[in-house]
Amino acid sequence: MTVENKDKNKKKYKGLKITGIIFLGIIIISISGFFVVKHYFTNQFTNLTDNPKVGEWYNIYPKNAKSAMGKQWHGNIKIGKENKVLIELYGGGVSIDNYTEERPNIKGIKNGFYNVASENGDNMAKWGISGTQNENPFKDWTVIVIPYSTGDFHVGAGAYEYIKEDGTKDIKFHYGYTNYSKMLDEALKYINTDPEALVIAGSSAGGFGAALLADNIIRHFPNTNNITVAVDSSLLLYTKWHETAKNIWHAPQAITNNLKTDNITLDSLVALKKKYNKKVKILFDCSIRDAILSQYQGYITDGTLQSSRKRGDIFQSDLKEMVRDLQNKIPDVGIFIFEGSIQKDTELTQHTILVIPQVFKEIIDNKSIARWIYDAVNNNVKSYGLSLLDKKY
Predict the structure, then answer these.
(1) Is the dihedral of CA 94, 96, 102, 103 positive or negative?
(2) What are phi and psi of 272, to 5 degrees?
(3) Cβ count within 10 A of residue 387
(4) What is the pLDDT of residue 126?
(5) Helices (H), 102-204
(6) What's the pLDDT tens digit per position in 42-100?
(7) DSSP symbols for 37-93
(8) C-alpha dihedral over 113, 114, 117, 121, to 10 degrees?
(9) The pairing of beta strand 75-78 with beta strand 84-89
């Protein structure tokens, strides 16, 4: 064999070796990706046992708990090492009239308005503020997760029958409050109802739910005085909130009585603070030009679900007014305004942060949302990112 042939064989072997390594790498990445997807997106929680293990997630299937479509609903629980409790409410859209009722977020329906599958929340618990990452200050807390599949900000307590566009009758089960109540009753059998600290948190529809349900949740922990309510990305202005909550969702009167203006979150938080004063700390965070909320606000305003720079401008103005009202009516409120990811064409910003790993990222003044909430638990309530309210986009 000539030297030239030897060199060719060496190069060929080297090329095959590199190709093999790359191919092997692809296989490893693919397998790893499969297990990552399985780990985070599939239902792998077991049903709650009589003796749950500390640090493990379980499902709770309350009797007669239903999604909007009438399917079995369930929540999640993890018993923590510390005598502290985090109750987290998930989001997923909202239904406010017959048009949105007919358009849940399911296959075959374009631009669905609300999630109807509670199992979508399984294992999301491992991502954000309820996860066990080392950087999470709440990793050793007991966590109760309330998934969302009812389109009613977690406060519905009845079925709503309506006429569809084709003239036929349909029914949706707005059982958000019913599901939450049954879930909490079951969960409280396994945890200490006198925790050292209680955090009630929610994102998007879950943030509205946190504001609306906080009073009811607090009454289940009568001896706990360190209470923090954290509302993430929950601002929609609508003059018919009271009517919707009462007639479509069939929410309890104790909740609907507080709804007096077009700002359901502000009404609920102001009433909560008035009742509990120093016992409860109020936090509100939102991205400056929230892409999803500005779309929903557009539907409320003119009946179209679209994204645009103008809608971002309107939302930014509404948010500025919301912050001003919160600070005037709840002087010790904590505010966190951020940008997150930004859409290039519209300058719209990301929606929600509590349920994703970014909650641990230092995004304003070397402070993360998770640490901001934890600081409030330890009586250090501060505001960040307020200068963004006047930023020109």
Answers:
(1) negative
(2) -65, -45
(3) 9
(4) 85
(5) 176-187
(6) 457 999 988 999 999 999 999 999 999 999 999 999 999 999 999 999 999 999 999 99
(7) HHHHHS--PEEPPSSPPTT-EEEE--TT-B-TTS-B--EEEE--SSSEEEEEE---B
(8) 120
(9) unpaired
Q: Which token pair is 259?
A: 């709804």
3-state percent breakdown (helix, strand, coil) of the chain, nearest 5: 40, 20, 40
User: Measured between alpha carbons, how far is 366 from 284 in angstroms, rounded to an integer?
Assistant: 18
Q: Using alpha carbons only, how large is the chain's radius of gyration in Å? A: 24
Type and span of the H or E element at 168: none
Return the DSSP state at 330: S
**What is the spatial distance between Cα 288 and Cα 291, in angstroms, rounded to a whole number?**
9
Using DSSP, state whether 119 is helix, strand or coil. Answer: helix
Site of tokens 């987290």: 88
Q: The pTM is what?
A: 0.89
Residue (of 321, 331, 226) closest to 273 by Cα position: 331
Beta strands 142-146 and 75-78, pairing class: antiparallel
Closest listed residue to residue 209, CA positions, set 189, 236, 234: 234
For 284, the enclosing helix (H) or strand (E) is: strand 280-287
Compute how many other C-beta atoms are within 10 angstroms of the C-beta atom of residue 86: 24
